[in-house]
């Protein structure tokens, strides 16, 4: 690539730019800080308040929320701030409450621990084989190993080993069987002080205990009828809505399949490893499906190996700029002073700060508009189908903008992407109270105002008239098969 993209990466330590004592802070203090910070330093503020009507609406909203902030606790203040920030319709802009781990009791909300010995329990059950209820036995999920046994008119699940969440002897849940069925009323306990148990439903099927909307457990004892590989491939009947892990495979000799659920650090490593290990076969396989459904973004570096595979010619791209305000310059200087910047990026950021000072009050072009060209075009890779949905956003949308410049790429989907890209490079800043942080976009795309993406998204080239699938797991589902068929039988070059 002749023009490399320079990205300044900051350590995500919250910036301490507030001199006020945290002991004297209130929700009003945090609210006024956010109003001031956004008004003076938000790179999109001028765009979002360009009309007199917008200015007046924002002023009315601010005045209406001030008394609400005055009567709101610090624990709930982020809700008030997000009502105000919602005016800007920028999903990269938000306030959040720090997660404060609860105090954990030695026992769960069941009220007591139960002494248990796995070996003795298995010997006892061995004598009762054929008489046990289907749900009785040893079950495993993730790091947890749970013994389920009868207790009064139901069953209880007891941790038989220490894990990250549970201690041996903790009662993890209770189960009460519905009449004439394999389903149960489920009561999930917690060790968190002051928190109530969670109520839900569970069901059992072929040595799988499924907690509806949550997770599933596999039976370990008595000996399950399902083989381990079969139980690993179980697909939840009452799933939790989570997107699956990334996966890669060759569907046949002519089509490769790449699901990338994130362009975060994990996604970067995954993409790089696959593109490196399978490079020769990928560049000689005619069709490549890239499934981005549910990919909310990450960092642009993560998709660079994909661009080298799919590009067909040089293309022109717009860069990004930052508002060279006093506050933004100060936050970078503070980051440098406190060692919050990766060593390899210190000199670049120092140079940026000096350049921002020269254009203070205006915009500093961090990445200029430029031509991008790669040294090699892989002509044997002829078609690239990219599957999208409304959850694709941020840097995943930036990848799509680059991909659309390739003549071998088509986007497949039922609706446009999320539309979260115009204002990016999010920087976390600690609020004066110390109870949370303001997530603050620092850059603006130079596509604006002519070619906005925010709240519009990127539309598919090929409309897919299939029911959306939000439970992807690692399956080659109907969407993937649709794109595969289209590429192999209907896409004429």
Plain-language structure description:
The protein is of the alpha+beta class and 493 residues long. The protein folds into three domains: 76 residues, Up-down Bundle (Histone Acetyltransferase, Chain A), CATH 1.20.920; 115 residues, Lipocalin (Beta Barrel); 244 residues, 2-enoyl-CoA Hydratase, Chain A, domain 1 (Alpha-Beta Complex). Helix content is 27%, strand content 23%. It contains 13 helices and 21 strands. It has an eight-stranded antiparallel barrel with strand order 2-3-4-5-6-7-8-9. Strand 5 and strand 6 form a beta hairpin. The longest helix is centred in the N-terminal third of the chain and has 19 residues. The protein is globular. The two termini are 26 Å apart. The relative contact order is 0.15. The N terminus is likely disordered.
**The CATH topology of the largest domain is what?**
2-enoyl-CoA Hydratase, Chain A, domain 1
CATH level 1 name of the largest domain: Alpha Beta
Count of DSSP strands: 21
Beta-strand fraction estimate: 15-25%
Mean pLDDT: 91
Widest sheet, order of strands: 2-3-4-5-6-7-8-9
Low-confidence runs of at least 5 consecutive residues: 1-20
């Amino acid at each position: 690539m002749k023009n490399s993209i320079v990205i300044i990466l900051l350590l995500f330590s919250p910036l301490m730019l507030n001199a006020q004592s945290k002991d004297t802070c209130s929700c009003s203090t945090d609210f006024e800080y956010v109003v001031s910070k956004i008004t003076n330093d938000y790179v999109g503020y001028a765009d979002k308040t360009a009309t007199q009507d917008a200015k007046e609406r924002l002023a009315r909203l601010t005045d209406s929320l001030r008394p609400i902030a005055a009567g709101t606790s610090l624990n709930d203040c982020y809700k008030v701030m997000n009502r105000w920030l919602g005016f800007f319709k920028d999903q990269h802009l938000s306030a959040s409450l720090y997660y404060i781990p609860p105090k954990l009791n030695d026992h769960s909300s069941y009220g007591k621990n139960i002494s248990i010995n796995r070996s003795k329990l298995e010997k006892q059950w061995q004598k009762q084989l054929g008489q046990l209820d289907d749900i009785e036995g040893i079950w495993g999920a993730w790091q947890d190993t749970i013994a389920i046994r009868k207790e009064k008119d139901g069953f209880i699940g007891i941790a038989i080993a220490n894990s990250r969440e549970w201690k041996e002897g903790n009662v993890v849940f209770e189960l009460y069987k519905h009449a004439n069925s394999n389903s149960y009323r489920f009561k999930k306990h917690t060790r968190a002080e002051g928190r109530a148990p969670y109520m839900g439903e569970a069901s059992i099927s072929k040595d799988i205990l499924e907690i509806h909307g949550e997770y599933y457990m596999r039976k370990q004892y008595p000996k399950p009828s399902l083989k381990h590989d079969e139980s690993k491939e179980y697909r939840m009947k009452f799933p939790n809505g989570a997107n699956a892990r990334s996966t890669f495979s060759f569907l046949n000799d002519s089509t490769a399949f790449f699901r990338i659920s994130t362009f975060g650090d994990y996604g970067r490593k995954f993409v790089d490893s696959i593109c490196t290990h399978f490079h020769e076969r990928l560049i000689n396989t005619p069709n490549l499906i890239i499934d981005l459904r549910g990919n909310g973004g990450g960092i642009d570096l993560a998709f660079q190996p994909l661009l080298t595979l799919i590009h067909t010619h040089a293309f022109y791209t717009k860069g990004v700029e930052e508002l060279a305000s006093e506050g933004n310059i100060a936050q970078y200087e503070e980051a440098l002073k406190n060692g919050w910047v990766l060593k390899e990026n210190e000199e670049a950021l120092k140079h940026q700060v000096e350049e921002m000072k020269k254009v203070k009050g205006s915009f500093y072009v961090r990445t200029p508009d430029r031509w991008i060209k790669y040294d090699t075009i892989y002509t044997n890779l002829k078609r690239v189908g990219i599957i999208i949905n409304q959850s694709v956003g941020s840097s995943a949308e930036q990848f799509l903008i680059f991909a659309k410049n390739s003549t071998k790429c088509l986007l497949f989907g039922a609706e446009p992407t999320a539309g979260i890209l115009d204002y990016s490079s999010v920087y976390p800043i600690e609020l004066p109270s110390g109870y949370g942080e303001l997530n603050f976009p620092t850059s603006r795309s130079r596509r604006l105002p002519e070619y906005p993406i925010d709240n519009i998204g990127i539309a598919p080239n090929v409309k897919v008239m299939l029911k959306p699938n939000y439970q992807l797991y690692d399956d080659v589902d109907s969407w993937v098969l649709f794109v595969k068929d289209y590429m192999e039988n209907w896409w004429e070059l």
